[in-house]
Design brief:
The protein has 205 residues and is α/β, with parallel strands linked by helices. It has one domain: Dihydrofolate Reductase, subunit A (3-Layer(aba) Sandwich), CATH 3.40.430. It is built from five helices and eight strands. A hairpin with a 5-residue loop joins strand 7 and strand 8. Helix 1 packs parallel to helix 3.
Length: 205
């Protein structure tokens, strides 16, 4: 099973609180909801296509709880309806990488064991399909560091948020990326699809 990361980021790499002003206010973050004003029908259609092709989802605890409270039992409902995102999230298996989540109330959810490397390797060794990771910055960095990511989709929004959690830390592992697909979307939003390609090559002289 292919493991794909899907992340919405600002030009300065912020991924925190994109969906609304109260979605994630950790560490005094006050600029939430920065992506929604730029989500056009074209972008929404692309996001729905991405979710529709998923065979299963993998989350970190914080992102799982945000999704469960909105797409699961919260404001966007749990019956699937006509929304491709809700339908995918509520009808396909969900896995949570967490050692602190005692149980999960959202149906079709499995909390993975502490031996996470083995658990994710087992998922990837399963039938053909796509295991998607949305948001989940800490988990994304952990997966990249261990070479478990097959593909990464970045939706980049044309603004500098100026505060908040970035996708990548100031000091972390380095990864070379192969650009395999890109497109310009409405409002200056861009989509890039990358595949990890080992470590970068640095100039030596």
């Amino acid at each position: 099973m292919k493991l794909t990361i899907i992340t919405h980021v600002s030009v300065d790499g912020v991924m925190q609180g994109l969906g609304g002003p109260h979605e994630d206010r950790r560490d005094g973050f006050e600029r939430g909801g920065w992506a929604l004003p730029m989500v056009s029908g074209e972008i929404e259609a692309l996001i729905c296509q991405i979710y529709d092709r998923a065979d299963a989802f993998l989350f970190g605890r914080r992102t799982y709880e945000i999704f469960a409270a909105s797409w699961g039992t919260g404001e966007w409902g749990s019956d699937g309806g006509d929304n491709a995102i809700s339908a995918a999230l509520n009808t396909r298996p969900k896995y949570v990488a967490s050692t602190t989540l005692p149980e999960a109330s959202w149906r079709d959810t499995t909390v993975l064991p502490a031996s996470l490397d083995r658990a994710i390797a087992d998922l990837k060794a399963g039938p053909d399909g796509e295991l998607q990771v949305h948001g989940s910055g800490e988990l994304t960095r952990w997966l990249l560091e261990r070479g478990l990511v097959d593909e990464m989709v970045l939706l980049t929004y044309p603004l500098v948020v100026g505060q908040g959690t970035r996708l990548f830390p100031l000091d972390g592992p380095d990864v070379a990326l192969e650009l395999v697909e890109h497109q310009a979307l409405s409002g200056g939003v861009t989509s890039q699809v990358y595949r990890p390609a080992g470590r970068p090559v640095y100039a030596t002289g």
